[in-house]
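This part of the workshop introduces the protein records we will be handling. To make this concrete, we reproduce a full record directly below:
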Amino acid sequence: MNAVCFLDERHHTRYQMILKRLNARNRKKYSFQSILFLATGNLALMQLFSDYFFPETGEFFYQELLAEPVEDLTVDVERQLLVQLYNGRTTLTIMEIIDQLDETELELVLGAIQIRSFGNQNMQVH
């Protein structure tokens, strides 16, 4: 399996900063690792996500996040994926991902999916 790459050093820093705020139990959960990787890779998504995710408690108000009006189709697809990676409560098709994301965002999404499957032990800065 290929290593998951952060988009850049700033993405890595944001990810580490929020990951450290999680309690030790949640920090080890692949679902949290994957949603943090995805959210910290897109600043518009991170801004939206930060209103509904509380790292210290691990609370994620995903229904409220999904109800928030969003005009950017990239952010919309990625927020649906956030919820799906977290708990499987949305249905997002592969074609929605392919049709709405550019190469960089697709790389980000694929990395988040890989982390959800295998964890964050094989990550590096791009």
